[in-house]
Amino acid sequence: MQAHELLSHLAHLSLAHGRARAASTVAAVAGIVVILALSRAARPPILRAAAVAVPVTAAVGGAVWAAYRPLPNQLPPTGYAWIWLAVGTLVLVASLLFRRPGARRAGVIGVAGVVVAAAAAGQVNAEVGVYPTVGSLVGHRPPTVVEPVSFGDVPGFESAVQSGTPMDSVWTRPVRTPGSGVVTEVQIPGTESGFPARPAVLYLPPAYLTSPRAVLPVMVMIAGQPGRPQDWFSSGRLGSTVDAYAARHDGLAPVVVVVDALGSQDANPLCLDSALGNAATYVAHDVPAWIEKSLQVSHDPAQWAIGGFSYGGTCSIQLAVNYPRIYPTFLDFLGQDEPSLGDHAGTVAATFAGDEHAFAAVNPVDVMRTRQFPELTGVFVAGAADDEYRPQQQRMFAAARAAGLNVRYYELPGGHEGATWGAALEREMDWTGRRLGLTS
């Protein structure tokens, strides 16, 4: 294997699944065993070190839990366990080194502590999917479809188009059709809402890049919180998933617009129009207006869908219920049963100054208690190991069925993580294509 091939292979090694997680578990156990073995000869010192480590670990772990748990994309219990293990190990190591056990022994104990901390970081990363591959640690872009292009380089409106429903019944693939789609970024302004969105990320399938061009449906997608639109292309594998769908259908696939419904990495406007910002108007009015003006796509609402994971999943059912004529199809992956900042009272206070009626007027569960929505179709997906969000998805599914929505619910292996929502998107592409009129 040549050097560049070896580097490419290493760059694409997964940090989130299978062998990587097993290796980090083994490394953590080995590091702890080494630390305990080297400290065995000095039981009073290690007991005193443990007496320091336990309360410090509890305090740090509690602070992490309090800061991170209220967020919709919170860590599962195993993530907190790994953080506590890392903090406890490092405090224990520091206490042992403070007692000067000798240069060689100190070096080995220090390295073992770093190994345990790195292994724990790897496990937490696997839970949240921030760095899906080795290459992503150093900024290597994962192979979603192709290298991104400037939006200015995307072909403009074509005079020759092919359209029909289902699209695959009338589509004749042009000879000059790219083998894959392209990814591009663009700023979608908050013209009506004033919402300070970050740039959106677009996936344009091969059939959009041809002449004649296929008039394609649209999927508006939203990431989790904290997060950014690019998360759908890293931990969610959106680019490779939709590109694979296009490869199976002669280049046909939805145009996917992943928008920012947060405003910043850690903001949480809850996809509402409230004191926290006009995120709902942005996604329901500004985004569709820009898409219809700037992209040559179908304007038929029956060919538009909204979807997302975690925060984005909650947004999808919110917007479908509150704007059914704009988004009659939704994909709610791992969402909540209501928009939340951590507790109901605090959420209502922060958004509508404590006005429960104002909150209920836009909260999907409350809205569905008062209206029927037979025109809405969607899917709820939960992780079988997601004890926090799975019950909420079940409650939302029950409320949707009671309101007459045409909905499905199922669970996939995994927790509140990229592997789960990425698998959900892959599984739902065929259904989405049929629903949006691409295939029969």
Automatic annotation (TrEMBL):
The keyword Transmembrane helix applies. PANTHER family: DIACYLGLYCEROL ACYLTRANSFERASE_MYCOLYLTRANSFERASE AG85A, ENTEROCHELIN ESTERASE-RELATED. It comes from Rhodococcus wratislaviensis NBRC 100605. One of its GO terms (molecular function) is acyltransferase activity, transferring groups other than amino-acyl groups. It comes from the Bacteria. Keywords: Membrane, Transmembrane, Transmembrane helix. The chain crosses the membrane at residues 20-39, 46-68, 80-98, 105-124. This is Putative esterase.
